[in-house]
Amino acid sequence: MTVHPVVASVTERIIERSAVSRRRYLALMERNRQKGISRPRLACGNLAHALAASGEDKARLMRGGGVNLGVVTSYNDMLSAHQPYARYPDQMRLFAREMGATVQVAGGVPAMCDGVTQGQEGMELSLLSRDNIAMGTAIGLSHGMFEGVALLGICDKIVPGLLMGALRFGHLPALLIPAGPMTSGLPNKEKQRVRQLYAEGKVDSSALMEAEAASYHSAGTCTFYGTANTNQMMVEMMGLMLPDSAFWNPSTRIRQALNRKAVHRLVEISQPGSDHRPLAQMVDEKAIVNAAVGLLATGGSTNHAIHLPAIARAAGICIDWSDLDALSGAVPLLTRAYPNGSADVNAMQEAGGLPTLIAALSEGGMLHQDILTVSKGGYADYACRARLEGEALLYSAARASSDRSVLRDTREPFRQDGGMRLVQGSLGRGIYKTSAVDDDRQTIEAPAAVFHRQEDVIAAFKAGKLNRDVIVVVRFQGPDANGMPELHRLTPTLAVLQDKGYRVALLTDGRMSGASGKVPAAIHICPEAQSGGPIALIEDGDMLRICARRGQIEALVEPAIWQARQPALPPLPGLGTGRELFTLMRSRSDTAEKGGSAMLAALEDTMDLHATELDKEFFDARHDSARLGHDALSGHSGAGHTGPVAGPADRAGARRGRVDHA
Ligand SMILES: O=C(O)C(=O)C[C@H](O)[C@H](O)COP(=O)(O)O
């Protein structure tokens, strides 16, 4: 199957741009692989510590020789999406024993709910918590006890953080195990309608609470297609979870069967032999592009314009917003789930779900098929639908969409282009989610109203000061300033203004939730105001232009006046709700386009300090591979190539070489 030329050329440029960082990452993973896991080498005292509470599995672990899986769990029971994980480790132990393997919980990581902290001080910890999760994952895995890794996580920062942490142990196989979306409650559009009525003072707080509780009503992921569900889609698109496992509801029989199979499969790919599948090999440039294609084809959450570069970077891969923009020009929009439509993720699953979507995108040449996945049959397996027959979990080829108002194929897409654009100009670079915005609102030209706190926007709205055409600028909201909170609480307010017939848009260096939609928004503006970005020069009343069609964000201010401006002074950093603990992470963050992470920026400095030895190890390994006619963990190509990444055929061959040898 030929890959679409835009997908192919974007992939090639990512491979070229990443050549040096990727080869150093792979050299480090090869070094890890050669060291091997510590468990068999641990001194008796060390090992006894690790096995002391392993109960029924102790004898097996003492004997050694079997696979021991490490679970990193983000369980807490305040977050509905993560609540089902409470029972997972105990069930996983039983499933592993069926395969002669064992399971230990390597560690727990925090999981924040952006729904709970929306508009609260706690939201300023949210993006930063991703790095904390990555570090927590690494801490759990650093005990060296495991042959394979099971990652339990669903929501916004959690999946990216788990992956970023696990990728530093990329010599080990890893698999994500989802828990599924909650069943449908009050439709999301209806919830949003009641919120808007409340913002206008037309219903009281008890009517609002009733609507909210009917929408968020039980265990599982929120049903809209926000960041959490986009996460699940991307991980499946990358082949890091079982085919068709993202969107079955919790506590269903099929979910249970998928969990069992996931554990069995992780045991298989964690054993030495021809089926051994290290995470570092699975997450390559092509897998990252597949995730980006999925993001665009589904009009997924803008948060992933930050998370995907961060995940990629943790694997030594550099993807930027120009890549997303180029892909968005070629990838058609194939789904319509709220906020891009009125259906929810359960309706999307019912219409055929990810297997139907993957089949359609594959047929259109949008997805790389030659990536290494957790599934035995490779990428073709991801175009297959799961079902239960009795107790047996079976797969068959995906059927066509049964609801074309929700899910379509590439012959008749909802739009010819994907859901996201890069907007750039005199105000910097930002992201604009086009998929939920009406066509006649893709360009907004209006005077600015400038704010440094979202509460002040709401106060101005309540005072009637925003009843006009306006571009609301909310700045000092980037990773360096206050950790880049989501500003989704502004959505109903701005939607009210828009529905009154005004031309309204938002421009901010902060984030919006994946649930935000119909109001035009240029977000994640880089450089952020705190780091000297031109957004700090905007004054009230300046004419601004945001145009998704041309990809522009401009201040229509006389150049001489603009250049003479002094940047606005930043507000004091937040105190309270633990925000001061994160001062270090804020002050060292790099741009949202690079992932907005102090941890990754500093990690690269350390990698650079080891550059000479890593490069030497890489080239030595490549030399050995060529001499011995096999490949090392790195997927290094044979002689004649100058980097770790060669053309697709060579790469597939290189992988085969590695797998046979492992
Ligand atoms: O999924 C995302 O993108 C999120 O970041 C989580 C959201 O912020 C909230 O869950 C928003 O929920 P609503 O306020 O009901 O629209």
From TrEMBL:
Domain of life: Bacteria
Domain Dihydroxy-acid/6-phosphogluconate dehydratase C-terminal: 406-595
Keyword Disulfide bond appears in the UniProt entry: no
Coiled-coil residues: none
UniProt keyword list: 4Fe-4S, Carbohydrate metabolism, Gluconate utilization, Iron, Iron-sulfur, Lyase, Metal-binding
Presence of keyword Chloroplast: no
GO biological process: D-gluconate metabolic process; Entner-Doudoroff pathway through 6-phosphogluconate
Transmembrane segments: none
Enzyme class: lyase
Pfam name, any one: ILVD_EDD_N
Record EC number: 4.2.1.12
Gene Ontology molecular function: 4 iron, 4 sulfur cluster binding; metal ion binding; phosphogluconate dehydratase activity
Disordered as annotated region, ranges: 630-662
InterPro entries from the UniProt entry: 6-phosphgluc_deHydtase, Dihydro-acid_dehy_C, DiOHA_6PGluconate_deHydtase_CS, ILV_EDD_C, ILV_EDD_N, IlvD/EDD_N
GO cellular component: cytosol
Domain named Dihydroxy-acid/6-phosphogluconate dehydratase N-terminal: residues: 69-377
Family: Belongs to the IlvD/Edd family.
NCBIfam families: edd
Alphabetical list of PANTHER family matching this protein: D-XYLONATE DEHYDRATASE, PHOSPHOGLUCONATE DEHYDRATASE
Descriptive protein name: Phosphogluconate dehydratase
Organism: Asaia bogorensis NBRC 16594
Upper classification of the organism: Bacteria, Pseudomonadati, Pseudomonadota, Alphaproteobacteria, Acetobacterales
